[in-house]
Amino acid sequence: MTKPASTPAALPALVDSVDDVHHDIRIIRLRPTGGPFAWAAGQYMELTFAGFQPRPYSIGSAPHSGLPEFHIRRAGINGVSQHVANTVKPGDTVVLRGPFGDAGIIPGDTMPLLLVAGGMGLPPMKAMIDDALHRNDTRRMTLYWGTRTPEEMYLMDYFTQLAAGNAHFKFVPVIGGEVSKEIVNEGNLAGMRLYLAGPPPMIHASVTAALKNGAQINLIHSDDVPTLNLFRNPGP
Questions:
Q1: In a domain, 4, yes or no
Q2: What is the CATH number of the domain that holds 33?
Q3: 150 DSSP 8-state letter
Q4: Pairing mode of beta strands 113-118, 141-147
Q5: What per-residue string of b and e applies to 5-19 under the rule 16 or more CB within 10 Å gives b?
Q6: Per-residue DSSP letters for 165-223?
Q7: What pLDDT, in 10s, does the model give residues 100-126?
């Protein structure tokens, strides 16, 4: 994630709720206390917990929810993610900075959407899908979500139920495989807008596969700008 040159002012917030959705993953919802706050689905923020350096996290909720939520996975030892996983509780203070990023749904756009997430790249996709469905967006939307194990697919039921209730939304879980090898099942991707989030190698492989199947690079979006630039500005 690359921050823009101008950095928004810090905004104090309180932890509103904490959900343990997996033994390594927590969803925390924050309630800003420093004034009005708005974001667009697909954006991310910097979170600063007391005693730790700021870290960027994607917002996993749509703006109409009122509370930004963050899906945080335990990683490393004695780091901020470990702190969130083990210690953070409702009422704790957090400092927000942002939002950042411009890889969200384009207002007025009507192109079919292909959303591809690897592991913890899911939150911005969830936000965009929730936002689109809330706005009664009826264009075709497909989410491919890849995880290493069934247990890591912590929102399987959530997306399965969304797909059951919305004929224009399709959910394809990819467990233990490569998402890039599965999206080719969508057929010719010409005229589709793609959103990708996850580890850079997954994004690179998915963009490669998508371009081979008719996707247009100007219709592929991700906050992983360095990876996309490899395709936008190929070397000699």
A1: no
A2: 2.40.30.10
A3: G
A4: parallel
A5: eeeeeebebebbebe
A6: H-TTEEEEEEESS-HHHHGGGG---TT-EEEEES-HHHHHHHHHHHHHTT--GGGEE-S
A7: 988 888 888 999 999 999 999 999 999
pTM for this one?
Answer: 0.92
- Order of strands across the sheet with 10-22? 55-58, 44-49, 93-100, 10-22, 25-32, 69-73
Interaxial angle between packed helices 156-165 and 122-134, expressed in degrees from 0 to 180 and rounded to the nearest 10? 30
Quote the CA–CA distance of 65 and 83 in Å, as a whole number.
26
pLDDT in tens, 176-219: 999 999 999 999 999 999 999 999 999 999 999 999 999 999 99
With respect to residue 119, please indicate whether it lies within any of the assigned structural domains. Answer: yes
The continuous run of DSSP H or E covering 50 comes out as none
Domain identity same for 52 and 137: no
Residue 149: count of CB within 10 angstroms of its CB: 8
Write out the residue range of the structural domain in which residue 119 sits: 113-232
